[in-house]
Amino acid sequence: MKKGPTIFLQAVIMLIGIGALAFLVWEPRVEGVNANATNFEMYSDPFILFAYIGSIAFFTALYQAFTALRYIREGKAFSQQVVNAMRTIRRCAFVIIGFVAVGEVFIMLNTSDDRAGGVAIGLLVAFGSIIAASTAAVLEGIVRDGISAKSGKD
């Protein structure tokens, strides 16, 4: 396979990761509740800590996508490593959906006059995670079928 498209996709994944990390560092400083808080007060907010812990699955999925593209570039598109990467991406997407669901419950149980924004963002993230999980499941099946077809020819 040509190296250009996979390198481009890996660069896009890196930019997404850098942007997400920058957002995670920057956003608590401008959030309404934490706008005038010190660093200790800001990062002791349970909801921010919950978001940081939930983001581990997101960065794990990005790393697995980066790794899968490396295997594809090396000509190992139909290998067990790619199947494992797709499985991990699918599981990470389910973890993200679980974190979003718990976060939505937290938002709904909290007394606030502006729940709609948090709920809308949570639904958007959950929808994106559903798409990622579905895509990873389909690609996992395709690669698994390709492996079995390849082993049948050998």
In percent, how much strand structure appears in the residues?
Answer: under 5%
Report on the biggest sheet.
none
Order of helices and strands: HHHHH
User: What is the count of structural domains?
Assistant: 1
Tell me the helix content: over 70%
Determine the N-to-C terminus distance: 21 Å
Count of discrete alpha- or pi-helical segments spanning 4 or more residues: 5
Oligomeric state, counting identical vs distinct chains? single chain
What value does the Rg take, in angstroms? 19 Å
What would you note in describing this structure?
The chain has 154 residues and is an all-alpha fold. The protein has one domain (3-153). 84% of the residues lie in helices and 0% in strands. The chain is built from five helices and no strands. It has helices at 3-30, 39-43, 46-73, 80-109, 115-153. Helix 3 runs antiparallel to helix 4 and helix 4 runs antiparallel to helix 5. The mean pLDDT is 88.
Which descriptors apply to this entry?
154 residues; mainly alpha; 5 helices; elongated
Topology:
Layout (H helix, E strand, L loop, with lengths): L2 H28 L8 H5 L2 H28 L6 H30 L5 H39 L1
Helix pairs in contact: 1-3, 3-4, 4-5
Characterize this entry briefly.
The chain has 154 residues and is mostly helical. It has helices spanning 3-30, 39-43, 46-73, 80-109, 115-153.
